Amino acid sequence: MATVHVRYFATLREWKGCECEEVALMPGETLGQLYSRLFPPRPDGILPVAYARNQAYARANDLPEDGDEISFLPPIGGG
Amino acid sequence: MRSRSSPRSAGASMLKIIDGPIDVAAVRRAVDDPATGAVLIFEGVGRQDFDGRLVVHLAYEAYPQMAEAVLGEIASEMAARWDGCRVAIVHRTGVVAIGEPSVVIAVATPHRAECYEASRYAIDQLKERVPVWKKEVYEDGSAWKANVSGGHR
Hints:
The complex is a heterodimer.
Chain A: E1 3-7, H1 10-16, E2 20-24, H2 31-38, E3 50-53, E4 56-58, E5 69-73
Chain B: H1 7-11, E1 14-18, H2 24-29, E2 38-45, E3 55-62, H3 64-81, E4 86-92, E5 94-97, E6 101-109, H4 112-129, E7 132-138, E8 141-145
Parallel strand pairs in B: 1-4
Antiparallel strand pairs in B: 2-6, 3-5, 3-7, 4-6, 7-8
């Protein structure tokens, strides 16, 4: 079974209560679908995120592969 | 013609995320070059924002490996766009006191006009693309604050 290493930052890290975890992928699961599975909609809605695959920006409909490092990036606030 | 170095290496002098105070003079030194005619130092500084609440301090978090990779992309873009441009960018994580720099950007170019343009480009792109998050910590709570640009491509 394909698994990915998922890293959490900021709001999502606080919601998850951890910095990272290994997640088994569902067959044909996209990054967007993985995010929806890991973070189901809350009463106040869905946190908009950008997608990262192997430390680079990716798209919601990209397909992660076994061993990938995945992250969902909450709206950033650097500077 | 560039006799001293390629644009790519010229742009990659110091691009990093650190956990601790930023040595502004070291960031400045990183862009030293005999071909330089203008240098600008930009500091993004922790602000005591009164939005009904008093900020005690800021706390920054980064995705360091990806943040440094994106800083490298920005530096390469700058070196390609402004001939002879050198840039150093250091962003810190952890607790940043009011008045302390959270990010320092040094830009050096042969002439002043492109130095202002390049410096503005660096901070604008950083705020839009580099995965860093800011939490405002108040006396009675805290909140993650996103950049106005939305912070996503």
